Amino acid sequence: MSRIGLKPVVLPEGVTVTVNDGSVAVKGPKGELSVAFPKDCISVAVEDGHIHVSRKDDQPRSRENHGTVRANLQNAVTGVHEGFKKELEISGIGYRCSMRGTSLVLNVGFSHEVVIAPVEGVKITAKDDTHILVEGIDRQKVGQTAALIHDTKRPEPYGGKGIKYKGEYIIRKEGKRAAGGKK
Fold it and tell me: Above 80 in pLDDT, residue 177?
C-alpha cells in the first residue's frame, strides 16, 4: 500500500476544492490551481475538510499514480494557501543581478548579460545585488524557474563562484600546485 497515498490532505480555512471529471480545482487566497488525475484508476473525494485519494484496483498503473496524485494535491493546497519560494545567492567578484521590468538580468562572468523572464504565475525579485527570490503558487514552476537561474552559472568547486541555493553547501577542492618540488 502507498503510505503517502493513504494520508488524507487537510484543507486549511479559506481553501475550497471541487472535484471535476478527471481534475481537481483548488481555490485559495493566493490563487487557483488545477490538478489532473487518471480517472480510470484513481478516485478523489472531499469529506469533512479532508481530501481522500483512493485507487480503484491494484494494477501497477494505479499504484504508481496513487501517491503521486495525493502529493500533487497537497502541493496545490499548500500553494494556494501559503505559496512557495526559493532563495538563491550569487557569490563571486563582479557577479551581480538586477531587475529590468519583471525580468532578471544576471552578470555572471560571461561577455554578455543573461536575461531570464519569469513564466506565468512566478514572480522573481532581486533583494539586492547578490540575493534572488523566486515566488509563486505552483511548486513545479517555482522550482523550474529557480533551477533555470541556478543552471546559468553553477558554483564551481575551486573558487565557489556562481549561483547557489540558499543553504546549499559547496564541496570545495584544492587547486593544483604550481611547483611540485624537485626530487
Answer: no
